[in-house]
Write a structure and sequence with these properties.
Blueprint (H helix, E strand, L loop, with lengths): L2 H24 L3 H6 L1 E8 L7 E2 L3 H8 L2 E17 L2 E14 L4 E15 L2 E10 L35 E4 L3 H12 L2 E7 L6 E8 L2 E6 L17 E4 L3 H11 L2 E8 L4 E7 L5 E7 L5
Parallel strand pairs: 1-6, 7-10, 11-14
Antiparallel strand pairs: 1-2, 3-4, 4-5, 5-6, 8-9, 9-10, 12-13, 13-14
Helix pairs in contact: 4-5
Length: 288
């Protein structure tokens, strides 16, 4: 057997080992998972601590017990490199499932496996999981990335937007965006869907020259929907009647009639179908 044939055979063996290891994770079979590792397998996982051992069946069983039903565990772009009795494999990994408390999780992360050839075949000696974090000073883990995304992460950043920008967590952000187009003449600048292809993790609108951001609730990530209260979005416009009538015709509910307020401007409040309160403000025109 040539060196190339030997290397190809080793790659095939390793891919089979990793495939069975992944299936054991999907089935939450701790013994089967651990059977693919060395006794001193070193693990740098997403969860604390910084360094751990994969030989702890109890810890693995405990983690499996937090999930309801089988796990979703998919490896993409798997690449295996072999040299003698040592090999490395890299992949983009998608983990998904439902916790017993009803929370759902779905994220991509980076996986590197170090393997060694033993008298019992190829075994995983090192496991390294990681996610990038946003370089905006927040140190927030970037668990919303998708390898199929067409976003150019190396593109120059957009210039900063002035002022304070409202970011609304609304039920059915897609429907809310469509309503704001009809009611307030909103222009959609950008949107990004979640992995389910239905919910929006981001929607950028421009209304009356200002920015408004929307997203759907994501209770599985600690962002459930809550009834909006305690704030009003003000639109300072040049023609109160025009803005008011358009919003009412679109379906906004009048909660404070449009009239001349004590300070001298036209002012009124509306509630949209998503529970958000809007104020329409405009100077009183001469003769009006």
């Amino acid at each position: 057997m040539t060196i190339t044939e030997s290397r190809n055979a080793a790659v095939a063996e390793i891919e089979e080992v990793i495939g069975d290891w992944a299936e054991a994770l999907r089935r939450k079979d701790a013994a089967r998972v651990l059977a693919h590792g060395t006794e001193d397998c070193l693990v740098f996982s997403l969860a604390p601590p910084l360094k751990a051992s994969d030989a702890d069946a109890g810890g693995l069983e405990q983690w499996f017990s937090t999930w309801k039903g089988p796990l979703g565990f998919t490896l993409e772009e798997l690449d295996v490199s072999v040299s003698g009795d040592v090999a490395f494999a890299t992949a983009l990994t998608h983990l998904s499932g439902e916790k017993h408390d009803g929370q759902k999780a779905a994220l991509w992360y980076r996986l590197t496996l170090g393997l060694t050839r033993t008298d019992r075949g190829w075994k995983i000696a090192h496991q390294h999981e990681s996610v990038p974090f946003y370089m905006d000073g927040s140190f927030k883990a970037a668990i919303d990335l998708d390898p199929r995304s067409e976003v150019d992460w190396q593109a120059p950043s957009r210039p900063p937007m002035p002022g304070v920008i409202a970011y609304l967590n609304v039920e059915d952000a897609d429907a809310a965006a469509a309503f704001y187009v009809r009611a307030f003449g909103a222009k959609e600048e950008d949107r990004k869907h979640a992995q389910d292809g239905k919910r929006l993790i981001h929607c950028h609108l421009t209304i009356n020259g200002g920015a408004l951001m929307l997203n759907d609730p994501f209770p599985e990530f600690g962002h459930p929907w809550k009834p909006p209260e305690g704030f009003v979005l003000h639109l300072v416009v040049d023609d109160a009647d025009f803005w008011w009538n358009r919003a009412v015709e679109a379906g906004a509910e009048v909660t404070m009639p449009l009239e001349i307020a004590f300070w001298g401007d036209h002012y009124g409040q509306l509630r949209d179908p998503f529970g958000v309160t809007w104020g329409i403000v405009a100077p009183v025109k001469e003769g009006g």
